[in-house]
Specification:
The protein has 3 helices and 2 strands. A hairpin with a 2-residue loop joins β1 (68-79) and β2 (82-94). It is of the alpha+beta class. It has a two-stranded antiparallel sheet with strand order 1-2.
């Protein structure tokens, strides 16, 4: 069922984006993120005029936004019905 939903969503994506502005803005943000990541990873040097496109300086962070997934794991040992030696581990992955 999820595959069918994904196909339908993809087929009607432009119509959905037109009617739900959040989908449109997410698509545009993703495009900007792809271009920014390409510029950074390719080592392209841009002069300061690119930061002054709107004519006035605006405070901005020069970081590429990324989606991150945080995974937490807990290892627990049980002995005679009692819990022993629990430990936590955290792992962050960029998507």
């Amino acid at each position: 069922p999820l595959v069918l939903y994904a196909r339908e969503f993809t087929h009607y994506f432009d119509l959905i984006a037109e009617r739900l502005s959040v989908i449109y803005h997410l698509r545009e943000l993703t495009k900007a993120q792809i271009v920014a990541r390409y510029i950074v990873e390719s080592g392209i040097l841009l002069d300061e005029s690119w930061l002054e496109v709107w004519g006035e300086a605006s405070p901005c962070e020069l970081r590429i936004p990324q989606h991150r997934i945080e995974v937490n794991k807990q290892n627990v040992a049980a002995q005679n019905g009692e819990l022993h030696d629990s430990s936590w581990s955290t792992c962050m992955r960029g998507v």
